[in-house]
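Changelog-adjacent note: as of this version, every example in the card shows the full chain rather than a window. The one below runs 293 residues end to end.
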Amino acid sequence: MRKLGKRLATSAVLALAATLAGTALAADATQASAGTLADGTPITAITLKAGNGISAVILSYGATLQKLFAPDRTGKVADVVLGYDDLASYVDHPNYFGVTVGRYANRIADGKFALNGKTYQLPQNDGGNSLHGGGKGFDKAAWQVVSVKSGPTASVVLRHVSPDGDSGYPGKLTATVTYTLDEAGNLGILFEAATDKPTVVNMTNHAIFDMGGEGSAEGATGHRLTIPAARFTPVNAKLIPTGELKPVAGTVFDFRAPRRVADGQRDGTDPQIVFGRGYDHNFALDKGLTARP
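Full-length structure tokens:
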């Protein structure tokens, strides 16, 4: 199979610092049934657990981060990502809570792209655009559980094979997602993809965080956020990036110093906030990919 560059390998490391006393000696990985799909396909729930109160539940359906439990500074443990409690809700609803998005995350204008002189038409599931794979993307697939391991770092490896022409995309694509949780409570997500012909691919995880925990009064918009980015990508009214890299200085997109998310969202005059109905934009990190957020 043809590999994309050195393989598409994007690592997302989510560091959750626990303040509980003691140090875990290992991280555990366990499996349980999460139910079955209408065609009888079994779905597995894999739990990765560190000894400091941090644990993650991953579903083989959509390679989904269903739950992420972490203690606050007082030691109270809460689920800090948005997700459904049951498999049926992930199947029935178009929300992308915690799922693996693919083949292509974000929007493709008019649901089409050109590659090597040929135009490919994709499903249009977002006002004429193709969003997150076109409605039947990686989030709606039953992924194969390749391995589940305990140890100093617990892990689960999931794999999905997308056939040539799937949702209009060229090439047979083998996608792999590896979730890891080490004994210190650091959660990692590694995306890999290999294809047998030229194609486009842009995988990500769509976790939605509320660090106050499930049911928190303030919600995520009350969080103070820092983004080391001097530029962002403006979008048009259909939320398609214009191709510009605009300075954040003097705008509500300047998070180089800590500020509340809600402060910028309340600005009803910035056309970018109007287009996105809040923040729905890419930020160009000043130093590129970093090992930690």
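Structural remarks: The CA atoms of residues 221 and 262 lie 5 Å apart.
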